[in-house]
Design goal:
single chain, alpha/beta, Alpha-Beta Plaits, 7-stranded mixed beta sheet, 4-stranded antiparallel beta sheet, 6 helices, binds ribulose-5-phosphate, Ribose-5-phosphate isomerase A, Ribose5P_isomerase_typA_subgr
Length: 223
Amino acid sequence: MNQDQLKQLVGRAAVDYVTSGEVVGVGTGSTVDCFIDALAAAIAEGRLTVAGAVSSSERSTQRLQKHGIRVLDAAEVTGLTVYIDGADEIDGQGHMVKGGGAALTREKIVADLADRFVCIADASKLVQTLGKFPLPVEIIPMAAAQLTRRFATLGGTATLRAGVVTDNGGHILDVTGLSITDPAAFEAEVNQWPGVVTVGVFARNKAQVCLLGGADGVQTLTF
Ligand SMILES: O=C(CO)[C@H](O)[C@H](O)COP(=O)(O)O
């Protein structure tokens, strides 16, 4: 199976984690696109109903609405049973690096509403230690140079993602050269640097379940 087929596989598997009749939290990315399509198919076939979705990006909102799935504002719900999203990296404890699609801030907001984060990914995303994938950080544009110097003190090289403006009007720094051995401490530290909107380490909002697609099918990891 190629990577696209693995994404479709885990996208379909994630539909089983949606509670019929409820509002579902929806992440962003190519794997989530597969989940949205599988969710729409399940609804069309009468296997599931949903009261709607809270979306983490304009991209996912458009795809959900194209399928006729109602999109609710985050402010319209007080909680969600499940949030389904991909990751750029996930470790053996469910900590993730996210934000390859520049949607990390809204992803963290919607994930924080949910009782359970179900991560969907192909097996290449499983790592021992976070940090090989360039760490996305959403920032206030005027802080770019200052934050670049600050990441250098941690051994990181930050590069501004050219031409990208997030759904919130922020910019993205991608930071290479980091080895994130204590994700919770790293997230807490970087999050309070002035100019940082959201750091792409998800430790406080880590996954409880990961559906990992590999040669042998879907492996379910629980944390
Ligand atoms: O964090 C994300 C978007 O901001 C995505 O979940 C992450 O980049 C994985 O994307 P894909 O499923 O396309 O590999």
